[in-house]
């Protein structure tokens, strides 16, 4: 492993990592982030969330100092405000939507498209408010299939639906989080790691000089791609095996603990 002095960029997952169990950013962690930025380290957020909820959760002073990866890599914004968007094949999205409706699971499906949430009914919002900040725009199944989808999201879908989706693994990136409760579906080769790599290339930062912090399986690709990786104390069981080290939980300022030890003390 390279010297810690070689680290030039820091990447943070949001839920379960930067944010505590109450979805708050502690003052200690906020100060550690800002001080690292003042030292010249590039800061990145990499999350499954859409832009609107990240903006609602993080203070504006943090948002001004980070580049952001949303939808597990399907939508990105750099420090200059430039965005990149990657969508699922319309034909494949239409097949999945048809299958979901055939299985009468339309109340478990939503689509994210460049910070707009779409669904077939309000039931998906009523049943999953902890994952959604705003009610969706309601459209018909035909209209839904025509929307460029950065991400399809299924909440507690049946094994039959999940099996059907897995038939498209050669053309899709499929990630389970929240102990299998959520199924995130993006275009093939879309991941937090691919998005961070692209953003870092623009800054001439090699991935070996990047440190990633995370707690769930959609952070695994980052752990493998970055030179350093830190699993939270509350991480999904087994994730720490692919991490450089483990820190405290998100409720004990685990991120700040590492930043202070590495760069600030």
From TrEMBL:
It comes from the Bacteria. One of its GO terms (molecular function) is magnesium ion binding. InterPro entries: Cof (IPR000150), HAD-like_sf (IPR036412), HAD-SF_hydro_IIB (IPR006379), HAD_sf (IPR023214). Gene3D superfamilies: 3.30.1240.10, HAD superfamily/HAD-like. GO terms for cellular component: cytosol. This is Hydrolase. It comes from Sporolactobacillus inulinus CASD.
